[in-house]
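Fig. S4 source data, part A: sequence.
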Amino acid sequence: FLIGNPYDLSKDMISSIEFFDTLQEVPADAWDISRSSGTVMAWVIPDGMGKYRLSVGACGGINACFCEGMFADYTEVEYIHFRGCFHTDYATSMSGMFENCSMIDYLDLSDFVTVNVTSLYSMFRDCQSLDYLDLRSFDTRNVVDMQMMFTDCFCITELDLSSFRTGKVTDMSYMFDGCCSLTDLHFCFDTTNVTDMTRMFCGCSFLETISLRSFSTSNTVNLCCMFFGCNDLVEADISSFDFSSVRIPDSMFAHCESLENIGVSELNLPETVDATHMFSGCCKLNVKVPGKQVD
């Protein structure tokens, strides 16, 4: 948005972003961000606090076909108003779209169309102030990559992902890694095609229970540190887990100090798999792993 701006502004000088569906009353110092066609214009207004409010306008709204990294690293932006003027109907990737928007605490994405999106990789990564996010309108039927989608969203306490369709997803590694305030997580994921769940819930230290009954892990290879450091986790039912393809279960439940129940009393792992540190520090859990040395 800032390429070609007459004030040589950088991202850290923007405090808010707003979209409009008209080009009426566009100021004279606005700049063209539409590849010289003049159909999409941007302009700034001082916010009175030493920074600027960024506005973007186009007749009928902005057709955002390429959303990858679009708002990444706007570290001083406190809010983004889409106002129904930001259309994502043809977007195929939202990777890193809001990555490192560290001051935003709320995002209204209810008008987003995501049916064609295949990647949500790192979409909200490092949104460290974000404490509310409603994604119930997201259609994720074609998404393949959810890696690091919410990594280090330190302040978010609740996520309702029960509408997510994940049958095509292959990577959920680091998905909620570092969501240290998360207490309520609702989902019913189809993980049939997921091969990597590395650090998926690592550091979710306030989660007490998590329902994993919808999980299928027949194709999952990596479960390394999946629940590492989930200090308050008491119950995680993995009775539906198939470990036949797993090669890396290292520290899967390490340092889950409150864990008492994983839905099974015995785990059968492939012969070549090292399970030594799989339950390291789980002082309240009693699980047998035949033929394996376990801490």
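Fig. S4 source data, part B ends here. The mean pLDDT is 95.
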